């Protein structure tokens, strides 16, 4: 599979990517733990089959000190012992918020109650925005077949003015 279209070689694509990165900056600067941000982004990207975003969030998490054990177990978080209850709630929200078409009514009341138990209002806002943003990023990359493997941690930091 070859990349169909390089959004980063297109003026409109780059302008959009810069604004997209700035929207992500609000989440990045939020009180939602950075490790949770990367785990949630990684899980949604796994579900959506986005190699580019899996590459990005695995490398960013590792660069921030996340362990290989936890990164390797994200896809099977329910069958592992390495995630906190708060992280499990966030991962459940990521899955249910990503699989909206697969599970009516979307995010279950049980998952929502667990999220509210572990996160304050600012963290909940960041978490909901993150799930929406990573799903949009996944769709952009999957549509154009943006392939994983070439991402370097921090490479988009210059776009977050």
Automatic annotation (TrEMBL):
It comes from the Bacteria. Residues 17-96 form the Carboxymuconolactone decarboxylase-like domain. The keyword Oxidoreductase applies. Pfam families: CMD. GO terms for molecular function: peroxiredoxin activity. InterPro entries: AhpD-like, AhpD_core, CMD-like. SUPFAM superfamilies: AhpD-like (SSF69118). Gene3D superfamilies: AhpD-like. Keywords: Oxidoreductase, Peroxidase. PANTHER family: 4-CARBOXYMUCONOLACTONE DECARBOXYLASE FAMILY PROTEIN (AFU_ORTHOLOGUE AFUA_6G11590) (PTHR34846), BLL7811 PROTEIN (PTHR34846:SF7). This is Alkylhydroperoxidase AhpD family core domain-containing protein. It comes from Micromonospora avicenniae.
